[in-house]
From TrEMBL:
Annotated protein name in UniProt: Peptidyl-prolyl cis-trans isomerase
Family membership noted in the UniProt record: Belongs to the cyclophilin-type PPIase family.
EC number(s) from the headed UniProt entry: 5.2.1.8
Lineage of the organism: Eukaryota, Viridiplantae, Streptophyta, Embryophyta, Tracheophyta
A Pfam family annotated for this UniProt entry: Pro_isomerase
Primary gene name: LOC110784456
Keywords of the record: Isomerase, Rotamase, Signal
Reaction equation(s) it catalyzes: [protein]-peptidylproline (omega=180) = [protein]-peptidylproline (omega=0)
Amino acid sequence: MFKIVAFSLLITLTLALADEPHFGSARVVFQTNYGDVEFGFFPSVAPKTVEHIFKLVRLGGYNTNHFFRVDKGFVAQVADVRGGRTAPMNAEQRKEAEKTVIGEFSKVKHVRGILSMGRYDDPNSASSSFSILLGDAPHLDEKYAVFGKVIKGDETLRKLEELPTRKEGIFVMPVERITILSSYYYEVNSETCEEERSILRRRLAASAVEIERWRMKCFP
């Protein structure tokens, strides 16, 4: 009897692992005023979505953007970069931000840490807003495009969940602005990854300070 149960559990675990999508080599870090959140992409699940979001990250599109929604146990949602940033966008950033992505819906479950695209009623209207799941949400499965998952930073997400909020329609929104000060990316397969990451961290930290100084001076 024990052998049968053990074998059954092994089969269940094997199937679960087989269903788990593989990460690509790129990693992205959002540096917020409450801590960092690092995530990876699922290019085999949502290739066009991953390409679009990663290009926006590389262009610095999410810098000075914010989380406009934090619903404890449900989602922390990043604003559309076209209206969520405090710094103005350059032509290349705006061109990419104005694109929409087809609805790449999959069998990947909406559980804590999953990255899922925001959209309107049109299934092909996803742009640059996306949610980080703060709990299991099976009602979103196969209706919203999953494209990645948080790797590090759950402690930051828990800080966000404890912030004061207000209700506005169907949205639960933070009272204080949760800013994505800056972002950076790296490749896990790069031999000089740690050195490049250290250099990029310092550069982006300096950029964040400069952007904030510019914002305070020109956009009070």
